[in-house]
Amino acid sequence: MAFKSGFATVIGRPNVGKSTLINTIIGEKIAITSPKPQTTRNKIQSIYTAEEGQVIFVDTPGIHKAKNKLDEYMLEQVFKSLEGIDLVIILLDATSPFGHGDEYILQHSKAQGLPFLLVLNKIDSLSNKMLASRITHYEEKTGREIIPISAKKKRNLNTLFEEIFKLLPEGPQYYPEDMITDQIEQFIIAEMIREKIFYLTREEIPYGVAVKIEEMTERNNGMIYIRAYIYVEKKSHKGIIIGKNGLMLKKIGQKARKDVEKLLQTEVYLDLWVKVLKDWRDKPELVKRMGYKE
Fold first, then answer.
1. Which of 34, 35, 192, 287 could disulfide-link to 198, CB 3.0 to 4.6 Å?
2. G1: where is this region (predicted)?
């Protein structure tokens, strides 16, 4: 059987489960998730290798209306992710009907002339009767066959892979079979910290937060010391992240450290600091400084 390989971009509206799908496929937390939309900011490549071939999945930010320079960067990442791609996976949300955002993504993908799959996620949230109705609704709206899945419950992923490998070209193995991402550890660690902020803080806080790893060194006892700066846009946001008597920052650190230790397979000392960078999302030079650049 011929070995197939290629790059597959996963695109969709915010919060349809793109990062959850990729993490489930890879079997490791590479892309962060949260119940809030626009969690993913960067284009993240994750690598799946099987006997049939190798798929390099490109996770992207959700497509949304840009409100600041960071949003513009995120949308640019989405459209750049279509360059040099072999397959587009359009992820749809079974808990909501086909909408204007889905139509925009579908038409943009068609315009690229690339093969694409329409994948309906979160089917575990619907009854069988409601799901059948929703699949019919999406197929009527798109004129294409829908692949229903649950990324969270790992349902019907075999069917998804069958369809992916039907469309991918024959090709080489681009990465070693034990490699699951091209991202450096510092990036993943910073994202893990940002994920905990999404889960633990108020609605308005996460979107104005960036995390940078300033130091990562191994101590004599084998422990990894990591110093990270959490940047926020307002002084009031700094107070919320630190919390009363530093309790919120401690909670963020404790939860993030568990994920980081699992990633690094060793004990970690996570040293978190909070700094204010006023309205950094509206300033191109600060957006770049936070690591959001080509």
1. 34
2. 12-19
